[in-house]
Design goal:
Radius of gyration: 19 Å
Number of domains: 2
Low-confidence stretches: none
Helix content: 25-40%
Mean pLDDT: 95
CATH topology of the largest domain: Rossmann fold
Bound molecules: phosphoric acid mono(formamide)ester
Structural class: alpha/beta
Length: 312
């Protein structure tokens, strides 16, 4: 595998499980007193983020540093993009400096595919528009496996703004490939115009779904992507689709609460619910570093013996 642009690049459950199994090794490395291995020594990774990020950008940076890669930061706000430089010229300029991997986030769906067609370096999609966010799906799958033993056979409700969510698209691909039973829960206006080919069920009734799921995966209300009035008000949205304290009582005691972040506390999730022990949001973030170490190792560290570099 040269690039990771979509969950589909992993080739189904075998490829996804390969990354999750490898992640176990990097979780072990991350727990060491000195959490660093020389797997990517001599390699250079650059972050090309045209959209804001906290978790994805910092965890990729942490992952690359733990693998001993050199890193280069690119900030749109202080770059020649502000003088009108095109995406292609920007990418070719960065590649000319000698990079092995480009981690890209862009507001336009498909931008990582365009970049991959222009460069020899590996490209990782860190989120493209409403389209995909494959490493989020991997860290979510890993977190479910960590807490419930397996994704296979779990019942997962993905709740909220599915229409604008790249996380939902990648999670549906990964969760269903791993054998989960996925239900999308949202008002009709926050669902994609067509769900043809999506191997999911749909419900408009959160209270009916909650008692029957092992994972409630809440999505952020993406106000910045809404160009039309898709819900009457945030207050009404919370009343029908927010995970309030009352709704938590409808869940089985083992049911996990997940969220990709950043959370709108008080909108899709009550502030107190986000901090309950069953909420594994912080574990998702922590696992994101080890999952991204596994992805970088697979794409850029080929030929390096994992047992030699981890000592495991
Ligand atoms: N989950 C996620 O992609 O968060 P960031 O936008 O902070 O990277």
């Amino acid at each position: 595998m040269k690039h990771l642009l979509s969950v589909e690049d992993l080739g189904g459950s075998d490829g996804i499980n390969e990354v999750l199994d490898l992640t176990d090794s990097f979780v072990e490395v991350s727990e060491r007193q000195i959490p660093k291995v020389p797997a990517l020594r001599g390699k250079t990774v650059v972050w090309l983020f045209y959209e804001d990020s906290t978790r994805t950008r910092l965890s990729f940076e942490q992952a690359a540093k733990r693998l001993s890669a050199d890193t280069m930061n690119f900030s749109v706000s202080t770059s020649s993009v502000k003088k009108g430089e095109s995406l292609r010229d920007t990418v070719l300029t960065i590649e000319a400096m000698g990079v092995d991997c480009i981690v890209v986030r862009h507001a336009s769906a498909g931008a990582p595919w365009r970049i991959a067609s222009w460069v020899d370096a590996s490209v990782i999609n860190a989120g493209d528009g409403w389209h995909e966010h494959p490493t989020q799906a991997l860290l979510d799958s890993y977190t479910i496996r960590q807490h419930l033993g397996s994704v296979d056979g779990t019942r997962i409700a993905i709740v909220g703004d599915i229409k604008h969510s790249r996380v939902a698209r990648s999670d549906v691909l990964a969760f269903t490939a791993l054998g989960a039973d996925v239900t999308l829960v949202a008002p009709p206006t926050l669902l994609p115009a067509s769900l043809d080919g999506w191997p999911v069920s749909v419900s408009y009734d959160l209270d009916a779904v909650l008692p029957k799921c092992d994972v409630v995966y809440l999505l952020r209300m993406q106000r910045e992507r809404m160009t039309e009035a898709l819900i009457p008000s945030l207050r009404e949205y919370t009343a029908s689709y927010g995970l309030t304290r009352r709704r938590v009582d409808l869940l089985d005691e083992r049911t996990l609460v997940m969220h990709p972040g950043p959370m709108n506390r008080g909108v899709e999730i009550a502030a107190e619910v986000a901090d309950l022990p069953r909420s594994v949001v912080v574990d998702q973030v922590r696992n994101g570093v080890a999952v991204r170490m596994a992805v970088l190792y697979l794409l850029v560290g080929s030929g390096v013996d994992l047992r030699r570099v981890t000592g495991a």
